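User: Could you check the structure of this?
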Amino acid sequence: MLNEVVATYGAVFVLVVFVLGCAMLVGLAGEWYVLQNEAAFLAASQAKYGGYTQEANVDLQRFVSERHIDRSRLSVEVSAPGSPVPWGTPVTARVTYNFPFRLGKWASFDVPVTGAGRAVSAYVPGAYDVTYTYPSW
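Assistant: Sure, the predicted structure tokens are below.
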């Protein structure tokens, strides 16, 4: 009789942990899609203009403000900052954010989530009048 009670409580505990884990995974997957989309946009922008432009930086700042992202937890890496790269050069962008997870008062931990974008530069010198810059948020 006692073993059935213990088994029932154990099964309920395992089920609750499983449901909470699934909920965290679904939330994390949604955040990963958001970061992946921003990284793909930054890479496509670099491919079009040959490098990281002021327009892409304005979009990055808008992304940070609309998503209410803690700037100290965000990291952005682009492969073509500051100046254009020649046609056919691969360009990349990585957006990493340390998402904070909290389990009440008992536990809090960060989960780093990274979105990566890749493209190939189609820059033709003189085709665009843009200002190249470095990522800032």
